[in-house]
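haha ok so turns out i had the wrong file open the whole time. this is the CORRECT one, sorry everyone. sequence first:
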Amino acid sequence: MKIAVDLDGVTWNVHEHLLEIYNEKNGTNHILEDITYWNFLPEDRFWESYEEMVKRIMIFERVDPNIAGYINLLYNFYNISFLTHGNYTIDMIEKKLKTWHIFKGLSYDSIILEDYTTPKVIHNFDYFIDDNPQMAMEIRVYPKKTLLLFTQPWNRNIDVNNFDNVVRVDNWSDIQKYFLKLINEVDLYARKV
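then structure:
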């Protein structure tokens, strides 16, 4: 089984940095909780701030202080790749992940950089861990794939009960519990057969 893990908002916190830059450039005072829907900021101003934010990659904080432990544990059972629409380079991402003891070949298989026009769900993964609310609509046509929608202010309005293959997770502990339950179910099935 293959898992695709998003970076921005799922692996590391970037939105505070983005808003800090955006607020400085535009004389605003937005906070994270203000971003209540995708594409909250005007696109032309967003990209200018986003490019500045990407340069701060080495100071991004982990979404969870134990993220390396969660990813390393799951890597014992699943193929894991990072799949992002971000404007990073693979070298930048690898360097940042190494600072948290997340290593290619020991913690994950690959990093896939995708342009913003290509939906992530077309990639050959069984599970996607992402905060993009648009993916809930896109994954509907892929009933054998599952989206673990990582809770952020911009996706709280998505009612996962309306989707057969979307599961809400609030943190990495929820993600680990979800996959450990699957592992136990497979193990129990194997013992019965």
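The longest strand covers residues 79-84.
again sry for the mixup
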